Structure prediction request, 553 residues.
Amino acid sequence: MTGSVAFDVDGAYSKRGRGKYMRPDAIFVQHESSRLRWAFFGGGRADLSHIWIWSSGHRPTAVVAFSFLFACLLSVVAPLSAQDQTAAVPDVATPAKARAADRVLENIRSFSHVPGASAAVMIDGELVWTGVSGWADLEEEIPVTPESRFRLASVTKLYTAALALRLWEEGLLDLDADVGRYVPSWPDHNGAVITPRLLAAHTAGINHYQSRPRDDSAPGRHYDEIVDALAAFADAPLLQPPGEEYSYSSYGYALLNAAMTSASGRTYTEALDSFVLQPLALSETSVEDVRLLPPNAVTLYRVNRESGATAIRPNDQSFVWGASGMRATARDLARFGSVFLSGTLVSEETRDMALTPARLLDGRTAGIGRYEVGFGWRSGLDWDGRPVAHHAGLTPGARTVLLGYPGGHAAVALLLNATWTSRIETTAELLAAPLMESGGADDTDCPTGAWQFDGEFDGDADRGEIRLAPDDGLCLGTFRSEGALIAMWLDNQPNVQRDFPLVRVARRGNAHIFAMANPWGLAQVRITVEEDELRGQGDVAGRPFSIEGRPVR
Prediction:
């Protein structure tokens, strides 16, 4: 059976999406093989008093009182608190899979020089792995734990998009109305019609931090009302007419926040709690108020590869709440991604709409480079050519990503407490790979030996050495370039680590898939060994390479 927790703070039935109804402290359970749904209502886990039974898509039609049976039923219902959920979910990752993911995470952190990292992976609605590495606070020697809360940076936009969709399903927000309906102070901009849908897809024409804030609205000041922060960019000319081009804009999400605040009659924090966080029991997620940081908040750092990490003071991000400014644990973030992509928080139709790339006025899809953009979510293909949805973030003291597979099969969250230039989406994919695959993480059939290779990296000659061997039940190795690949970093990082660690994370036929750590995150390397001859191919940050190796004698 599958279950999810739902709340409605007003205490009345409310229609949500495809005929879904909610009441306070309600637990919904739907049998996978039938259309019947059961909902248990009451004041908490120990005070369930009624069962409503109805057919999917219809209002509850029958009620049956019960008393002692609730104890039995609780065994098949998801617990209410995030802490209970984490403890109750079995760790289905095998020891080899978990060790592989642990090793990959440590490689990510050591190469990035970021003080601390946390990650989590959900598979089919279950938290199968959490990983931590390094320090939440270097000076105080406080290690990162699964309870550590990191800044989410622009991953916050996915929560804002989810809130907008929830308000739309409740009939409180019109996604295609001019934002002037909700924010009367918003300038006319020569009659340009800017809608919540355009704002969510970054196609409204609003700039991204290009306009300089006035002295009275500068970042650093705290804003109790988001509408007051709009002065930083409200009068700036639009970059282009709405719907004409994709132009990423955090200011656009601040305006979307203002529209939602007006439509819901609640502050951003209140609306987010009521419609997103509480229904999913995300008790380790909150909007960051730098005046009162949440428990277990990690210290933020700026990293210099020569001088090391320096702690920085959190900047007040209330001027762009909705675009940035949240904190969460990795496991809470992964859970949010898993539930949204499964079509549980919003209806499946609404989820599909969010993942569908937006269309520009001329019919092109919105997006840039490797991904297209829908209602907040970016979509593309993973290292193995499978569709993925994601969003990354970068802000002082944080580098973050949430990535998942449509349908909710898997979701991975990766959080670090310093800025870091990286291909973080690919990094998250390869971090999750050993946990998603049926095999390949252990040392079975691990190719063993050392090979000198020649090849090309992004069209230029490369050479070097690869060493592979089983170790600690895993298939590990090193990749050492003496040519074009390592030259990419030597000018700016003369002391860069020359041996790039390899961890096998999957198998594809006779090919061994390795996650190779490098200064930009993880890169996929496919290696085959036949009659001692090695062949490999992959890419580093989108730059392809291919090699051929012969055994070192």
